[in-house]
Amino acid sequence: MESDWQDRAFHHHIATLIDALDGPDFWTRMTRVIERFVAFDNWCALLFTRERAPLVCAESPMPDGTVDLLFRAYLEAMYQLDPFYINACEKPRAGLVTLAEVAPDNFRMTDYYQRYFKSNIIGDEVQFNLPVDNERTVIFSLGAKHHYTERDIAQFAMFAPWVVALMKQRLAYEHFAQGAAEVAAADRVEVQSAASHGQLSEAGFASRIEAVTQQSGRVALTAREIEVVRLSLSGFSTRAIAERLDISFETVRAHKKHIYAKLGVSSQSELFALFYEPLGRAGA
Question: Where would I find the HTH luxR-type domain in this sequence (predicted)?
């Protein structure tokens, strides 16, 4: 059966994309191929590393050429509340990841969603993930002002094998690949140290919480209270936190009561503002 012109055009674009693997416009070319089939509004390619801020491989430019302050705030600290980042660190796997898969039950009620995710003109997001090792994952994110349809998601899923395969080939040409062995070794030491204290997934977030409480003269939180803060700010309901930590609903409520009393706050929004409001204002 003879292929039509669209098929031939698609294969041509894939060929040019392969040719661009070692070039500076690889990620831009990738977006141009995909956007022929699914509409999206912004994109970025990042390296997620446990307990470290994401590194930028490439990102879509702002329409007016200015710096995206909200994205800078995300890179500085708000990534810690990103369900995609949390999922990539806790359950690294290659392939397509959708917002519906990783978002906690109360995600759209969080200040992170209202002040960053939604404010950054994102109605929906998907990511193509490629774990580099146990601590690092390269992600290619496509954000849209609208919600992706079932057809959109199916199209992304169909593209995932070759997108991830090309991402794997691209690794050798990314800046973070230089000295990767030394970086990975340093990361392993840091992660092992955190694990020895029972804080593998909370170490980076805990450091921020402790620094802010010390600077503001507030009472320090326990390790379990810090876990509850992170999960709560990330969008997990009280019941979901209880299930995740394997404790009772009432125990979570008690932890929240103690957290609010220690920090002198009375709501979830005040809790978010204590640790992230300066970043939010910077991106307003």
Answer: 214-279
Select the more confidently predicted residue: 232 or 204: 232
CB count in 10 Å sphere of residue 153: 16
CATH architecture of 5-180: 2-Layer Sandwich (3.30)
**CATH 1.10.260.40 fits domain 197-282:** no
Least confident range from 90-94, 141-145, 150-154, 204-208: namely 204-208
pLDDT over 70 at 60, yes or no: yes
CATH 3.30.450.80 domain range(s) in the chain:
5-180
What number of H helices and E strands is found in the chain? 13, 5
Q: DSSP for 76-113, please give it.
A: HTGGGG-HHHHHHHHS--SEEEEHHHH--TTGGGSHHI
Name the 3-class secondary structure at 125.
strand
